[in-house]
Amino acid sequence: MGDREKNKTSWKERLLDSWHQPWYLRKASSYGTIHKDAETSSKVSQRRKRRALSATRLYDVQPKCAFLSRVPGEVRNIIYLLVLGNRRLGIHDRGPGPLKGRIRHSEIPPQQTGFTDTVSFLTTNKLAILQTCRQIYLEAVDILYTTNHFQMLRMQDMKVFTQFMQSISPTRLASITNLTLVANVEYFEPLHPLASNMFKHWRKMWATISLYVSALRHLTLYLRNLWAVENLKLTADTYWVKPFLQLRNLENFDLVVNREDIVAPEGFQDRLEPNDTEQLTAKVERLRQYSKKLLCCSR
Length: 299
Known about the structure:
Blueprint: H1 3-7, H2 11-18, H3 38-56, H4 66-69, H5 73-84, E1 88-93, E2 103-107, E3 120-121, H6 134-146, E4 149-151, H7 158-167, H8 170-174, E5 178-184, H9 195-212, E6 218-224, E7 252-256, H10 274-295
Parallel strand pairs: 1-4, 4-5, 5-6, 6-7
Antiparallel strand pairs: 1-2, 2-3
Helix pairs in contact: 5-6, 7-9
């Protein structure tokens, strides 16, 4: 067999190798994959079990490491917080191109409310501290999930965002406290070509949040492009509103609609009359008050 043949790997080997990659470098489609045969499914299951057991194994003390042996734990926690914590992390698809379909995350500037290609990616710098050794990982990983604000700022990234939540352990997922999500309401119009597919992922995303993100306390939902839908219905029984109304025990919920999402842009002024704009603003406010009262109560 030639060198070229030896370098070729089957789809099974590539799939098994993918389980060793961090969630931010793996293809979203690799999560929850239905394997083509029982042999591959069994191998993946065994690897998952070994990784789960490995994650709970005690780490070896490293007396030669000055950072771990001489720096007090309280000071190390401050360092971990400065490196990993109190940031806005956008979860999104890295495509287009060869990295399309891979879960990526980026640090979002405080003043930014939407996605842009100019955000600074963190996959090669700040998170590297978690890959130095087992002790540092176990000491610092909770800070990544408990202190950061995770955001999905494009509906096109909804599937990837759900896959991100499914890719981390239930313990880490349950420790997330702060989420910001976006809904482009035109995607929920029955005549929109992507309506059925978008709602499927929308419902799955909220079901995952409701069942597993038990520590969630702060939720912000942006509604986009309300002007694009004629006779928009914004009530508690609207079919795409119901999924997020199942949440409870929040400390704060905010339904955000920017002015540019209510007032039609130039060229589309015939979509909304001035009175319609006022009525739409009133609808949003009623839904905000109702949702906040419901989501911030106990189950």
